[in-house]
Amino acid sequence: MLKPDMSEFPETQVARDPGGEAVRQFTIWADNKVGRLNELLAHFADRDLHVMAITTVDTTDSTLVRLVADYPEEVAQMLDEHNFCYSTVEIVAVEIPSSDYLYRVTCALVQAEINIHYIYPFVARPGGKTALVLRLEDNDIARDVLTRHQIRVLSQSDIAR
Fold first, then answer.
1. What is the pLDDT of residue 126?
2. Which listed site, 6, 79, 83, 152, has its alpha carbon 20 to 30 Å from 128?
3. What are phi and psi for residue 92, nearest 5 degrees?
4. If we measure between CA atoms, which residue out of 141, 161, 126, 133 comes closest to residue 27?
5. What CA–CA distance (Å, rounded) separates 33 from 66?
6. Of the residues 68, 89, 110, the one at which a domain ends
7. Neighbour-count burial of 64, counting CB atoms closer than 10 A to its CB (0-12 exposed, 13-18 middle, 19+ buried)
8. Collapsing DSSP states into helix, strand and coil, what is residue 46?
9. Residues 85 and 98 in one domain
């Protein structure tokens, strides 16, 4: 399996400052074997990093682990140090204070003709509010549309602990 080109992500030492930037999702390629996810999560625990949202996609030879964490710069450094193959992409994260908000989110996106590639829930979030990860066709337009529909779009600082 080829390792993705990571030249666009320079290695830097960054203090724990998540800022107001867009939320980043990691897609990690993991061998499809017993204990590999546990090993990955142990590395997070060793660095006091928190997985805020996670989903897996199983393939014949490997598993794709998609996740959102509280401090993406530190996660990237940890993954590099432990030779995990990964890529990152900006996603849209939205707060849904009740189950009817899921419908509000999809309605807003349909009206703007924005395709949803996939969606999964957060595992945990400060303040105990539910949130969703959305991988969309156009994040910038989606953020604007969702905000206009009074749906709270989260930044990286909103999910940091």
1. 63
2. 79
3. -110, 130
4. 133
5. 17
6. 89
7. middle
8. helix
9. no
Q: How far apart are CA 140 and CA 149, in angstroms?
A: 14
pLDDT, tens digit, for every residue of 37-74?
999 999 999 999 999 999 999 888 889 999 999 999 99
SS3 label, residue 143: helix
78 and 97 belong to one structural domain:
no
3-state secondary structure 69-129: ECCHHHHHHHHHHCCCEEEEEEEEEEECCCCHHHHHHHHHHHHCCCCEEEEEEECCCHHHC
Q: Which of 40, 64, 89 is the last residue of a domain?
A: 89
Average pLDDT in the chain: 87
Q: Pull the structure tokens for residue 21.
A: 């930037």
Element (H, E) at 42: helix 36-46
* Distances in whole angstroms, Cα of residue 107 to Cα of each of 58, 98, 115, 144, 146: 30, 15, 11, 14, 10
The set of residues, in sequence order, having a beta carbon less than 8 Å from that of 136 and lying 6+ positions away, is 91, 92, 109, 114, 115, 116, 117, 142
